[in-house]
């Protein structure tokens, strides 16, 4: 029987998981049974094997299938490729990709900024005003800090608004309005307040509409459902593509995941952003 | 009489497409577009996956007459998809993108699609972990776990020795295990900006 070689346990376990242990053993001047026996002797290998297997499964997990429109666009773009067409297609794809994800992601970043800012603002004002958002915080055992307010339309912010908001978290972010609180002070330090734009008024109108559209019960239901995923950092309402939406920020390890959910069905994730 | 396209296997369709049969090519692309997109998504991340997928499909269309059937068709398209994804990463690194003060990763889903929140979280977790893994580790792990290439095929695709493939898979998975376990990046993986 060959001598037991010195080898890295992780590398051997991965080779075994990948069906490559024979080659691994050969490269270490031994045979597969000897390698397996040595692995079995080493402490902790079963647990480590399970961890590595879980990683494999996570990476291999299916991603959502492409929607029909995107699929059709990509397939059409692959047909009859000519250099001119490639250039146009690639540019169109890039533009289209930008159009589809930049505003959403940027809007979601605004949500994150606004909510974080809103949470701080609410925390500061809670003690003096009595929070209108307390109903939203009840029943959350693992909730550290919850803001509640209305963010208006999350899907129709203009790029200029986004640039202004993202570019200046310190210079002022439009803060969410607490549910039921008519305070206008949240916008006092925002760029819109200093330089009013037509969009600011319409956002306010839309905000009040979505306040009516999302009930406290729907908000509470979504919160209850999502608490199992992590500590809820903030909860708010708004609209997304003309439908009432609930926005939840969930703390997971070092990140916050923001979910924009259909108000009438929390399982319908309309948008999710992690940062 | 020729069988319907959906009853013909990849090899048969690929040979027909290579002879100029447009319908056969369209059927092949439609059959494998999700597979191509998955490879691109895992390597490039959600933001650039569509561009890479588009370029991979164009690459397949252009090279189909050179498919010789010596490897499985799926192995062949995974190679093309991988190269398209790597090209996209290189383009991204050269692109002059203004860096936003906040970095974030979007995982937008189409309006109307019901998505299980736990699966969304899992997807975000793995997207995030892969994005934080340096490219050299990420690519080999994806080629192994998504494309199902063996070590020799990965070595050939990336033009690196098998020993390097083995060690990168081992280090890459170890880093992912750490990140997926507690989300703390180990010292030997890079953080990728998704601005």
Order of helices and strands of chain A: HHHHHHHEHHHHEEEE
Radius of gyration of chain B: 18 Å
Low-confidence blocks of residues of chain B: 97-112, 182-195
Quaternary state of this entry equals: heterodimer
The first-to-last residue Cα distance of chain B is 54 Å
Summarize the biggest pleated sheet of chain A. 5 strands, mixed
Tell me the series of helices and strands of chain B, N- to C-terminal. Answer: HHHHEHHHH
Helical coverage of chain A, percent range = 40-55%
Shape of chain A: elongated
How large is the share of residues in beta strands of chain A?
Answer: 15-25%
Strand content of chain B: under 5%
Key words describing this protein structure:
heterodimer; A: 275 residues; alpha+beta; 5-stranded mixed β-sheet; 5 strands; 15% strand; B: 195 residues; mainly alpha; 8 helices
Describe the structure.
- Chain A has 275 residues and is of the alpha+beta class.
- Chain A is built from 11 helices and 5 strands.
- In chain A, strands 1-2-3-4-5 form a 5-stranded mixed sheet.
- The longest helix of chain A has 47 residues, at 83-129.
- The model of chain A is unreliable at 81-93, 95-100, 117-147 and 157-204 (pLDDT under 50).
- Chain B is mainly α and 195 residues long.
- Classes of the chains: A alpha+beta (275), B mainly alpha (195).
- Chains A and B meet through α1, α2, α4, α5 and α6 of A and α2, α3, β1, α5 and α6 of B.
Briefly summarize what is shown:
Chain A has 275 residues and is an alpha+beta fold. In chain A, 52% of the residues lie in helices and 15% in strands.
SSE layout and pairing:
The complex is a heterodimer of chains A (275) and B (195).
Chain A: H1 9-17, H2 21-27, H3 32-41, H4 45-60, H5 68-78, H6 83-129, H7 134-137, E1 150-153, H8 159-167, H9 191-194, H10 198-213, H11 216-226, E2 231-240, E3 243-252, E4 255-262, E5 265-274
Parallel strand pairs in A: 1-2
Antiparallel strand pairs in A: 2-3, 3-4, 4-5
Helix pairs in contact in A: 1-2, 1-4, 6-8
Chain B: H1 10-18, H2 22-44, H3 49-63, H4 73-94, E1 105-106, H5 117-132, H6 135-145, H7 151-158, H8 162-182
